Amino acid sequence: MTTPVPVVVGTGPVSAADLVAVARHGAPVVLASDALAAVDRARSVVEALAASPTPAYGVSTGFGALATRHIPAEQRRTLQRSLVRSHAAGSGPEVEREVTRGLMLLRLSTLATGRTGVRRDTAQLLASLLAEGITPVVHEHGSLGCSGDLAPLSHCALALMGEGTVRDAAGALVPASDALAAVGLAPVELAEKEGLALINGTDGMLAMLLLAITDLQRLLRTADLAAAMSVEAQLGTDRVFAAELQALRPHPGQAASAANLRRLLADSPVVASHRGPDCHRVQDAYSLRCSPQVHGAARDTVDHALAVAERELASAVDNPVVLLDDTEPGGGRVESNGNFHGAPVAYVLDFLAIAAADVAGISERRTDRFLDRARNHGLPPFLADDPGVDSGLMIAQYTQAAIVSDLKRLAVPASVDSIPSSAMQEDHVSMGWSAARKLRRSVDGLTRVVAIEVMTAARALELRCAALGVEAAPGTRAAVAALRSAGVGGPGPDRHLAPEIEACVGLVASGDLLDAVTREIGELQ
To answer: Does the predicted model carry a pTM greater than 0.85?
Structure first.
């Protein structure tokens, strides 16, 4: 197995590819020397403020509704420690390793901007946890998406203190102190402002947004493949996907999706078999004809979400934040701000859940047409081998329909909700973490719905080709072959379907299905 290339933090904004490499594929992290210099400079500002008799929020005061309390110097380290312990109040199931690694990377990226005032040892320790594969246990519930993802980030900060529970590189659940000692790391004793700097960011919701965008970019190309297979097997026309028609409504996502459909259906003997003057079908159903419009709108939504994510990646989200100014005593000052509010990220997380639900909805409608003998143009009812004795793919569509129904509920926005906290000091919150958690379920659901359409369309395509005595298009034929190689069976008597559905889900989720097709016809847009 190839060792992942380390991701260098502090030479510029972390990219989506960097995030995926660290979060999903275990790439280690190193801090750039310029970042360490920036960290040192900001720390000198904080230390000057700590020595000043003038109260500075986050340095020598309490937090939130307790910000008016001045904290004497001898209690400030206790203050930071107490902050992390009290805010590590998550509850519920453990979130996925990739989410926690993602939020740790993004918090480190903000620390590396030199705007938070942490010491270099603290930043280095966070980088070391990522490099050693030590992952703090973070829980499902606890973030309101404002003042940052406080509880999730606090569980990570707790591990830096050698407290709480983590998973080591092998995945074993161990005390943080033991995990640190096992790899030769010492816990940190947090100094002024460091506790606050470690927990005050949109890192959890942003990490989940970037992971979802990565998955959706692949899924929407796979949805185009599924639609092409359905159009071909249902004797649909490819003329509606012509570039000149798409140009009349110049949405970029629509143009890309239509181009994929044209490419996937190119050189299809099935499509050619009903293209002549004897074909009396004037228009296909919306679920076939409008696939580029729906898939394209989802693509454009993903592109908008990516633009928001990239702006957030270029941000230094903390409160208070260090502003460098050589005219100030100590070289700068600390200012309160509201940049931790998760609204920009929360909105697009909700937008993507809406897009996922709609793409799944049109996929399910295409699938259902195959199973209805009144609409499938000569195929057996439910694509069954012996209808009546066999049920074919009847219940696979039930599974699809159940998931689509769930996705509609998950599309209800979280970001329109708000609930006050911290004695009304924090009286409007984004619920971005909640939006991100439900989007992860939406992405999983869309994966399963598209997989079932692909499985259904593959069976229908084999039946259609056998009836016509021709082959499918090169691209769709490659998809069918990939399914069969993975143990997803073709037409025949009823058998246990659940394992075949899961095999197809695995092909879609991993990108292996798409890879098999692109090896045959080239990359899709």
So the answer is: yes
